[in-house]
Amino acid sequence: MNVIEKKIKPEGAAQNISSIPDALKHSKILMVDDEPITTEILQTFLEDAGYQNFVSTSDSTKAVELIRNTQPDVVLLDLVMPEVNGFDILAVLRSEEGFLHIPVVVLTSSTDATTKLKALELGANDFLSKPVDPSELALRIKNTLAAKAFQDRLTNYDALTGLPNRRYFSDSLQQLIQVAKMSRQQFLILHLNIDSFKKINETLGASAGDALLQKVAVRIEEVLKTPELTVQLGHQQYQLSLFRTGGDEFTMLVPDIRKNTDAGFIATKLMCAFNQAFYIADQELFVSPSIGIGVYPDDGENVEILLQHSNVALSHAKNQGGNLYQYYSKNLNAASLEKLQMGNQLRTALENNQLVMHYQPKVDLQSGEIIGMEALMRWEHPELGMVSPIQFIPIAEESNLIITLSEWAILEAARNIKQWNENFGAELTVAVNITSKHLKSNLLVDTVKNILQKVEIPPRFLELEITENVILDNADSNIQSLKDIRSLGIKIALDDFGTGYSSLSYLIQFPLDILKIDRSFVINLHTSQASRAIVSAIIAMAQGLGLFVVVEGIETEEQLQFFQQRHCDFYQGYLFSRPVPANEFTKLLEAGNYRKAGEKNRSLPV
Ligand code: C2E
Ligand code: MG
Ligand code: MG
Question: By CB distance 3.0 to 4.6 Å, which of 35, 38, 217, 359 could disulfide with 373?
Answer without folding.
Answer: 359
